[in-house]
């Protein structure tokens, strides 16, 4: 958790930066993204350059591409329990 990722919505070309968090840690929806949200779950396990499609609750299809992993606690040697 607490990985920070930059990604692009391939339908709108908008870029976003979000920090993946557990639902109980969600404080700012403009900066954070719950791993239980459809997009948060979709981002788990993805790597830079990977694209994914998934169906939104309203039935529309979304597509994103991971552009950059800005921060990952484990890669920085920070392990939290």
Give the topology:
Blueprint: E1 4-9, E2 15-21, E3 32-34, H1 38-43, E4 51-55, E5 61-71
Keywords: Kinase, Transferase
Pfam family, one: GreA_GreB
Organism: Serratia fonticola
CATH architecture, please?
Answer: Roll
Mean pLDDT: 90
Number of domains: 1
User: Roughly how much helix do the residues carry, as a percent range?
Assistant: under 10%
Which runs of at least 5 residues are low in confidence (pLDDT < 50)?
none
GO biological process, one term: regulation of DNA-templated transcription elongation
GO molecular function, one term: RNA polymerase binding
Keywords: Kinase, Transferase
Protein name: Regulator of nucleoside diphosphate kinase
How is this structure best described in words?
InterPro entries: GreA/GreB_C_sf, Tscrpt_elong_fac_GreA/B_C, Tscrpt_elong_fac_GreA/B_fam. This is Regulator of nucleoside diphosphate kinase. GO terms for molecular function: DNA binding; kinase activity; RNA polymerase binding. The protein has a single domain (4-71), classed as Transcription elongation factor, GreA/GreB, C-terminal domain (Chitinase A, domain 3), CATH 3.10.50. The protein is built from 1 helix and 5 strands; from the N terminus they run βββαββ. It has one helix at residues 38-43, and strands at 4-9, 15-21, 32-34, 51-55, 61-71. β4 and β5 form a beta hairpin. The protein starts with a strand and ends in a 10-residue tail after the last strand. The mean pLDDT is 90.
């Amino acid at each position: 958790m607490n990985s920070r990722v930059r990604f692009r919505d391939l339908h709108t070309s908008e870029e976003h930066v979000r920090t993946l968090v557990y639902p109980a840690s969600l404080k700012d929806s403009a900066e954070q993204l719950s791993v239980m949200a459809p997009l948060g779950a979709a981002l788990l396990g993805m790597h830079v350059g990977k694209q994914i499609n998934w169906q939104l609750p309203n039935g529309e299809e979304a597509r994103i591409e991971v552009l950059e992993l800005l921060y990952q606690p484990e890669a920085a040697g920070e392990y939290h329990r």
